[in-house]
Design a protein that fits this description.
The protein is α+β, with helices and mostly antiparallel strands. It has two domains: 73 residues, RRM (RNA recognition motif) domain (Alpha-Beta Plaits); 44 residues, no CATH class. The chain has three helices and five strands, in the order βαββαββα. The chain has a five-stranded antiparallel β-sheet with strand order 2-3-1-5-4. Strand 4 and strand 5 form a beta hairpin. The longest helix is centred in the first third of the chain and has 12 residues. The protein is elongated, with a radius of gyration of 18 Å. It comes from Linum trigynum.
């Protein structure tokens, strides 16, 4: 099971969340969606572990244009007690002068603007100076 929280101030209807999840993950296999409290918190159950793991590995997700954080959930404990407030995402920085595009600056920007800087795309370091981001 996965526990997902749709990060929006508006309450998301269960039918809208279910439609968005089925649209995003339907090709992975069957899934069941169960709303829980507080609002916008859902339990996603998949027909097999491979499907669940694929959804987990392909995160972050935007369901119905809403960033959705996901955490693995064993079914034990209250869903609302599971902390799911972080999401990993890939960010591109545009508009830097060519001589500012280096590893040290990218790491400094990542650490300054984000709670936790995970890594830099090291595969493209040779192209770092010539790309626009």
């Amino acid at each position: 099971m996965l526990l997902g929280k749709m990060l929006t101030e508006n309450k998301v209807a269960v039918t809208k969340a279910a439609r968005a999840a089925r649209y995003a993950w339907g090709s992975y296999g069957e899934l069941n969606i169960q709303p829980t409290e507080p609002p916008n918190l859902f339990i996603f159950t998949f027909n097999n572990m491979e499907t669940r793991d694929k959804v987990w590995m392909d995160r972050p997700w935007s369901l119905s244009n809403t960033l959705t954080t996901i955490e693995k959930y064993s079914g034990r404990g209250k869903p609302e007690d599971i902390p799911i407030v972080k999401v990993s995402m890939w960010v591109q920085i545009h508009g830097l002068h060519q001589n500012q595009r280096n590893v040290q600056n990218m790491e400094a920007i990542g650490s300054y603007y984000f709670l936790e800087f995970l890594d830099l795309d090291r595969a493209g370091l040779i192209m770092l100076v010539t790309r626009g981001f």
